[in-house]
Amino acid sequence: MQHVNANGTELPAIGFGTFELEPADAEAMVEHALNVGYRHIDTAQMYKNEEAVGRGIHNSGLAREDIFLTTKIWTDHYRDGDLQKSVEQSLERLGTDYVDLLLLHWPNPAISLKETLGALNEVQERGLARNIGISNFTRELVEQAVEISGKPLVTNQVEYHPYLDQQPVLDKLAEHGMALTAYCPLARGEVFKDPTLERIGKAHGKNAGQVALRWLIQQDNVVAVPRSSNPDHVASNFEIFDFELSEEEMREIAGLHSQDGRMIDPSFAPEWDTAA
Q: I need a surface site. Which of 33, 161, 226, 248 has the fewest CB within 10 A?
């Protein structure tokens, strides 16, 4: 298993995401993913499946310390006091004393970032989270968060795949020793229809999705968290450590970026960075 070092923390480069998985699927697929070899599981309060994820981890029979577990705090719990209580409730649902990584799920301009990060820091000080970070933060917000937080932030989890140029965010994170965790790394399945990715995959005996994931984790500070409810896809998404893309192939895949490549853009999203 490949790891990404972010401010002294080793993050498994491939994780299993659980967004939009119903509880029964989340439980079964988390257990399956761990049996396949994944050691990084990603969930969130908003996904409404933390209990199921916890059961899947328990059912795997693996020791808790062998699993890197991430969850995210929803934006209506960002007040000091509310945040800490919501994390305690998440841990109860997950059936664990701590998470390895705790993220702010989206920016919330209605609540002071200083107040929210102060509460997040306190959660880490109490040992409820080994590491802390952010999600869906723009370059400017990353800079603000790093300046405000007393403790290091290890990642910013954002949408990232071959059709979306995240270079501005990547550069900002690299400045601060942070990783980028890529959600929606298969572009909601669009990569499987891509002739460029298919052609490159054929040369390596891999499918287009495996090529897209390999492209992500072959970048220095990128982690990917694909999700699937199909056991075969869960397994194949993990089979990306036995081949390497050439520099030319990496450039060709980056050339797939487009201006309208973003797929997750809710009404409460910040004003996204645009590539030069």
A: 248
Is residue 265, in this structure, part of any structural domain at all? no
Look at the pTM and tell me if it is higher than 0.70.
Answer: yes
CA–CA separation, 180 vs 165, rounded Å?
A: 13
What CATH number is given to the structural domain containing 33?
A: 3.20.20.100
pLDDT tens across 209-245, in order?
A: 999 999 999 998 999 999 999 999 999 999 999 999 9
- Catalytically annotated residue among 47, 98, 163, 183: 47
Radius of gyration of the chain (CA): 18
Domain range for 75 is: 3-254
How many domains are there within the chain? Answer: 1
Q: Answer yes or no: 47 catalytic.
A: yes
Closest CA to 62 of 16, 22, 123, 18: 16
Q: Any idea which residue has 């795949």 for tokens? A: 161
